[in-house]
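Entry, Tuesday afternoon. Goal for today is a structural model of the target with fe (ii) ion bound, before we commit to ordering more compound. Inputs were pasted exactly as handed over by J.K., no edits. I checked the ligand SMILES twice against the vendor sheet because last time a stereocentre got dropped in transcription.
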Amino acid sequence: MGFGHGTEGGAMEEDDTEIQRRVLEEAFGESSDDDGPACSAADPSLSRQPIWESVAGIKGLWLCRDFLWIKQQSLLLSAIEREGWFSDNSHNQAMRFGDLPEWATELARLVREAACFGEVSFEASRGSNSEDQDAEETCPLPLNLLWREPLFDQLIANVYEPGEGICAHVDLMRFEDGIAIVSLESACVMHFTQCKGGDGNAELQGEETSSMRIPILLSPGSLVLMSGEARYLWKHEINRKPGYQLWEGKEIHQKRRTSVTLRKLCKSPN
Ligand SMILES: O=C(O)CCC(=O)C(=O)O
Ligand SMILES: [Fe+2]
């Protein structure tokens, strides 16, 4: 397991990989080989509880700011670098389907663990109307999604240079509900805009309802989970044109940003 899986030989390389493996075990805890749920209330690998915030006004949108520690963030980044997807600077996006690299499987395990064990902070989620919250909304992922196998079987890694973003979209309908986005390197603002009519049409690029536009700050190491309305009835976008990356009244200094999106493909009809 782990984010380090060098392919080249050499004592140095092996040492590095071994160190990375040990660091990961300390940082992430050993992964479970059990067939059943990988975590329980007594899981000894749990050394801290991530805090989840729901996003006011958007059902099914959850943010975990402290998902990855700094050390974990750099291990994840180096695992992505080792893939060599972006080494010649000619690509800024890579996709994988089916069997994911080991580090992505580990990341998916951490997403599940965080959703299982994380604590919902109603204070941090302030602004959301607690009366509107039903029982399902106290878990960042509905249980039927949380325990599906595999949790994810598709990944996209995106690298954004300053000024680059992603235009408003709803993820394709060929992906199931329950999407995770992990942010690395630098912060950005992601905006959510409600889809007109809310019929969840594939790849909506169309009209929006009035001015419902909700920003969330994606800091490095954070995790976003989208399900239900957030996944189907809201578009998300990252606009890094000058003037759009404002947080608490201040323009965010733009640097390179890397993200990993994890999704699950819908079963194809036989
Ligand atoms: O890079 C991100 O944070 C979002 C990526 C995304 O929305 C997508 O690939 O569908
Ligand atoms: Fe997306």
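Residues 192 and 236 are 5 Å apart (CA to CA).
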